[in-house]
Each structure stands twice: as C-alpha cells, then as structure tokens.
Design goal:
2-enoyl-CoA Hydratase, Chain A, domain 1; N-(1-d-carboxylethyl)-l-norvaline Dehydrogenase, domain 2; 27 helices; eight-stranded mixed sheet; 695 residues; alpha/beta; Rossmann fold
Length: 695
C-alpha cells in the first residue's frame, strides 16, 4: 500500500503524503515520494507538481523509529529525494499546513515555491535530539530567511508560526485558506507565465556582518551548550552556508550529522524522546479503554504540595475545589497561589487578566460537602497512614459514584489506602513532585484493584496538565523514592567511609546531576527521611539504627527550613555553606562506630551512587513495578535532576556496559560488613551474562 496519494487537478499533479500520524519520512515514504514525482514527470499532460501533507502535518520529519536501523540510510535517502524535487524540470510547489518540521521542512525547502497556512508550525528541531538538520536544512534555511534568523531557529530548535515568516523567501504566499488550492493556483500561474524555477541552493547568503555575528554567536552558544556538542556543530554548519560552495557545505553538514548521530549525547536524547512516547503505552491496558470525564477536581490540603497540584489544573482551565481545615491555612494557600501567578505576570508569562481567570477557577472550602460534585479528588495531606485513613473514609461517604480518589503519597501503600473505601477500583496514587506546579514528573501508582478506565483517564489527564506520566506498581516509595533510598544509603556509606557532603555533592554535580544528595536532602527537609526510617523500623518491629542524617535531625538540623542541615544557610539565601558542626557530628559518628576514615575518590562517589540506582532499578523492573527500563529513566530525568545527556540511570548502565556494572557491584558487596543490597540484581546478572542491555 502506497504512503502517498496522487491525483491531477487541471495541469497540476498533487502528491499527498499519507503516512499518519505525522508523515514521518521513513524509507517507504521516501520511495513512494520519488515514484510519484517520476510519474508526474513522465506525464506530458502534467505541467506542474504540488507536494502536500494533511491538515495536521505536512511532515514531522524523519521517522525516529528507523534511527539506528538499516532503513535510516536506505536509498533513496532524504537528500536524494529533495534533490530530485529541486532539479525537477517542472515547477514544484509545496503546500504546507500543520507541522512542518525537520526533514519535512527540508523537503519543502527543496521545492521551487512554497505556500503555507498562516498557523503552520515551522521548525528544524533536530538539536533537541542532539543532532543537526542532515538534509540541507543548515544550507537552504539561511538562504530563505537570512543568516541570523536561520541560526537562531536551528540552534534553539524553536517552532515558529508560518505567519511570522511571511515576507521572507521561505514562503511565496501565506494564507488563512486552503494551502493546497492556493498552491495549485500558484503552480498554474508559474506555468502560464513561464516563471523561473527558483532553487534556494542558487541563492547567495548575503550578510555584510556575517563574520562578526558568527563570532559573537560562537561565544554565546559555547557558553550555553554545556556538555551537548550539537549546538556548536549546528552553528558551524550554518556558517558554512556563508563561506563554502553549496555542495561542499552540504557534505560538511552530512559529516557533522553522522558524527552527532554516533555521539552518546544524541543517543541519550533520542532515547528520552522515544521513552516519553513509550511511557503512555501500558502493556495490559486495552486500546480504546473508555475515559471518565474530568470536569471538576478537588484537592485536599492548601500547603506547598496541594497548592502546586491545584495550579496544574487551573493552568489547564479545570476548576478546583481546595479544602483546608482552618481558614488561616486556606487563606495562606490561596495567597501563595496568587503570588506565584503574579510573579509569572511580572515576568511577562501571563497577563493580569489570565491571573484573575485562573484564580477565579479556585473554589475554597472548609467543608467536604462540595466534593459531592468532584470527578477527581487528590489528597495532599500529612504522610501518615492514620491521617490518610480518615481522609479516604470521609471521601468514600461524600463523593459520587465514579469519582476517582487519588493519593499524593510519596511512599505509603496505595492498596491499603484503597482498602479504607468501598470502591478500591476507583483509587490510585498520583504522586506529584515538588514544586508540583513546576516539576514535569507524575508517578501514576496503579493499585492491585485500580480499574483500567481510572488508569487510562489519569494518564490522559496528565497530558492535559503537561506532565510526563509514568505508571508504577505498589511498593514502598514506588519507582523514584525506592531508588532514592538506595542512592541515599550509598551516599551515606561514602560519608561513613571518609568523604564529606560537599565532595559527594560536587562529584555528582560534575557528573551532571542538578543537585547532589546532601543539598537535595537539605532542600526537601531531612525530617522527611527521618520519619520514614522511624516508620520502617516500627513496621519491622526492630530498633532503628541511627545514621548521620538522624544525628543531624536530633540536633534540630532539618535543612534549609531550619537554617542548617548537612550545610549551613544564611537568612534569605539558598547557598549551601560547608559547616564545621556537620563535620564534627560525622567525626563523632565514625568514632562511635569504630570507623577509620579513608580517602574516597570522585570516581568512587559516582560509581557507588549511580550503580546503586541501577541495581535497584533492575529489581524494580524484575518485580514488574515498572513496565520498562525507559520508564525508570524518565522518572529520574524528570523528578530527580538526572542529566538528560546521559539518558537516565538505566541507559547510562547500558552505555558503560552491564558487565562492568556487575563487576563493580560485586566488588562493593565483597567488602567487610557490606549491605546485602550491593549484590547484583538477578535481572542485571542475567542481562550482563547474555550480552544484552536494559534498553
């Protein structure tokens, strides 16, 4: 079956890309496009060609599923298809609607004329995948819209509405009507008036300040690019459009593309791109599962978490009933929400009218009674099972049949919480990350009895509120915090061994993490982990064995909120200042436990902390708590500041080599008094021995 449609209107052949959803330019579509062009060229009655897509997409670019496969480089490659259209003896007009991105825009740039709908979305976003446009985009776009505008688009990967590019050589016409009809009319005019066939490759890039601008851009891009090589390679490819003949510059562009395609940074970014799309596919959730309608949401708790959760729904235009037990707490929560929106307005991100519209969607209440109208209720109360029990028993009494009841718990058992109601199929966890109005991650915790339509509804709702949703099974801490516990234990063992918090944090921040474990602990509040350790010890019926963090908490050092934790903090500032008091507490702990401190290298810090994450991730995967390794990567990328250029802990393990991870874990496990959790997870061993990877 062809992935293009072909029809003739008067003297013009219309070739329509027909490969839903976004006309990805995979091998089959490239072949069919060339065949359709050849058909038009062979027909003496056809005098011109229009190439177009759907209303949704002219083309979203390369078919990312083919990256790394033989099809990606199978002939005809996209560059050959573009050259064929560009060299056509009959005029070619591109008719553009919807998204026109990446290879799709490069294809359009190869046409002689272009007509676009005014709201068409134009971009060369390859840099976001650690790549550069590899089919002439870095050469033809500067010839169409100028050097500076093209460089800005390519280095940023930004999307621009076609209307903003009106008046440039990119578009011969921008219309609010049907771009195909306009393109056919233009094609007929070109034929009738014998207008020249315009090839962007023949245009010279004229910019008298080119060298000065490019040097300025090099300095800025180098400073902003960090560990990513693609932005600078994009810049140099665009620079070649000024200084090199077209064909030579095209060759340099292709060499740079191949170099980037083989880079670990691009592999990581492509992995993340694919992972986000895979996360929404739940293996045992039937396709077409009906969704429950969510028109009104209720949130319990107007504190930091509850207020942030509320803002997500207000931003999406969904009304929220916000409950607190006391008027003072309710007023404080509402004031914080308003302050956040007003700060956004001061930065130009919102208008005053939008602030009032969003605040107008909040219905404050001190009573559960209005919750009878809610389609979804999310509790964000104190992390205590007795408190959760009181809340869910009350919700079971008040809420209508079919309402979804969700807990924002970070650790507690969702199945136990569901058991407090007579409707466990309507209960699940929606674990937002703080600050909830900023952090992209949402762990959707599926209980043993959570109904399929409840899960499907919440996954769809996550998209509406612009979250990256990952499904987790039920266990203590779910995916993220369960792994964090092992990560924290590894960091703590390094302190015991001889490292200081600033060394551990520094080594992991050099590795690429946004924040080391001790700075992160101070930010979140050390009392949270302290309470969790006490709860776990009580549940296990054993005395709690204190760690250094507990000694800090016993001294009232809970982190930033008390002015001291692992570090010291000055009033009104967030700078983490190494503190001799902490060093003294650490020394006393080592002495009391008979530990002689040793020198710890930064490489050991990274190995122990990151491999602890990987090992626990392998257990989570084996137990079915996560459906796939890439889901675990998404959790750590979006919830815990893991560097995107490394692709997440599980992809990082693949990159290092699983046998090497296993070898290091066995070394740690063999140390005297080592925690048994250092033993390599069975799944990790199995994959390493079979020469396989997580992803």
């Amino acid at each position: 079956m062809s992935s293009t449609r072909y029809d003739v209107r008067g003297r013009t052949a219309v070739i329509t890309l027909d490969y839903p959803p976004i006309n990805g330019l995979g091998a089959a579509l490239r072949t069919d496009l060339l065949a359709a062009l050849d058909r038009a060229l062979a027909d003496n009655d056809v005098k011109a060609v229009v190439v177009t897509g759907s209303e949704r997409a002219f083309s979203g670019g390369a078919d990312i599923k083919e990256f790394g496969t033989a099809n990606a480089s199978r002939e005809p490659r996209l560059a050959a298809v573009i050259a064929a259209f560009e060299d056509s003896p009959k005029p070619v007009v591109a008719a553009i609607a919807g998204v026109c991105m990446g290879g799709g825009l490069e294809l359009a740039l190869g046409a002689h004329y272009r007509v676009a709908k005014s709201d068409a979305q134009i971009a060369l976003p390859e840099v976001k995948l650690g790549l550069l446009p590899g089919a002439g985009g870095t050469q033809r776009l500067p010839r169409a819209i100028g050097l500076e505008a093209a460089l800005n688009m390519i280095v940023s990967g930004a999307t621009v509405p076609a209307a903003k590019l009106k008046g440039t050589a990119l578009f011969d016409e921008v219309t609010d009507g049907d771009p195909v009809a306009a393109a056919v009319a233009l094609a007929e005019k070109v034929v009738a008036e014998k207008l020249p066939l315009k090839r962007l490759r023949d245009v010279k890039v004229k910019d008298p300040q080119a060298e000065a601008f490019l040097q300025f851009a090099r300095n800025n891009v180098a400073a902003a690019a960090g560990p990513y090589p693609a932005p600078l390679k994009c810049l140099e490819a665009v620079a070649a459009s000024v200084s090199k003949p077209f064909d030579e510059a095209l060759r340099l562009e292709r060499e740079a593309f191949i170099s980037l395609m083989n880079s670990p940074e691009s592999r990581a970014l492509r992995h993340v791109f694919a992972a986000e799309r895979a996360a929404g596919k739940i293996p045992d959730l039937p396709e077409g599962t009906p969704l429950r309608e969510i028109r009104k949401v209720a949130v319990i708790g107007a504190g930091t978490m509850g207020g942030g959760i509320t803002m997500n729904f207000l931003n999406a235009g969904i009304p929220v009933m916000l409950l607190e037990m006391k008027q003072e707490a309710l007023d404080k929560g509402l004031a914080t929400i308003r302050k956040n929106y007003e700060n956004s307005a001061r930065k130009g991100k919102l208008t005053g009218e939008q602030v009032e519209q969003r605040m107008g969607l909040v219905k404050p209440t001190l009573d559960y009674a209005p919750f009878a109208e809610a389609d979804l209720v999310i509790e964000a109360v104190f992390e205590n099972m007795e408190v959760k029990e009181q809340v869910f028993r009350k919700l079971d009494e008040v809420c209508k049949p079919g309402a979804i009841l969700a807990s924002n718990t970070s650790y507690l058992n969702i199945d136990r919480i569901a058991g407090f109601t007579k409707r466990p199929t309507d209960v699940l966890g929606l674990h937002f990350f703080s600050p909830a109005n900023v952090m992209r991650l949402l762990e959707v915790v599926r209980g043993a009895r959570t109904a399929p339509d409840v899960l499907a509804t919440c996954m769809q709702l996550a998209k509406k509120i612009k979250k990256v949703a990952v499904v987790s099974g039920v266990c203590d801490g779910f995916i993220g915090n369960r792994m964090l516990s092992r990560y924290g234990a590894a960091a703590q063992s390094l302190i015991n061994a001889g490292a200081l918090p600033q060394q551990v944090d520094g080594a992991l921040q050099k590795f690429g993490l946004a924040m080391g474990p001790f700075r992160m602990g101070d930010l979140a509040g050390l009392d949270i982990g302290w309470a969790t350790r006490k709860r776990k010890a009580a549940e296990a019926g054993v005395p709690m064995k204190p760690i250094v963090a507990d000694k800090l908490c016993e001294a009232g050092r809970f982190g930033q909120k008390t002015g001291a934790g692992w570090y010291r903090y000055e009033a009104g500032k967030r700078d983490a200042i190494p503190d001799p008091v902490t060093e003294q507490l650490i020394a006393e702990y080592r002495a009391a436990n008979g530990i002689t401190p040793r020198k710890v290298s930064d490489a050991e810090v990274v190995e122990r902390c990151i491999y602890a994450l990987v090992n626990e991730g392998a257990r989570i995967l084996q137990e079915g708590i996560a459906a796939r390794a890439s889901d675990i990567d998404l959790v750590y990328l979006n919830g815990y500041g893991f560097p995107a250029f490394r692709g997440g802990p599980m992809l990082y393990a693949d990159t290092v080599g699983l046998p090497n991870v296993v070898r290091a874990l066995r070394r740690f496990a063999a140390e005297p008094g080592a925690d048994p959790s250092w033993q390599p997870a069975p799944l990790l061993l199995q994959l390493a021995e079979a020469g396989k990877t997580f992803n």
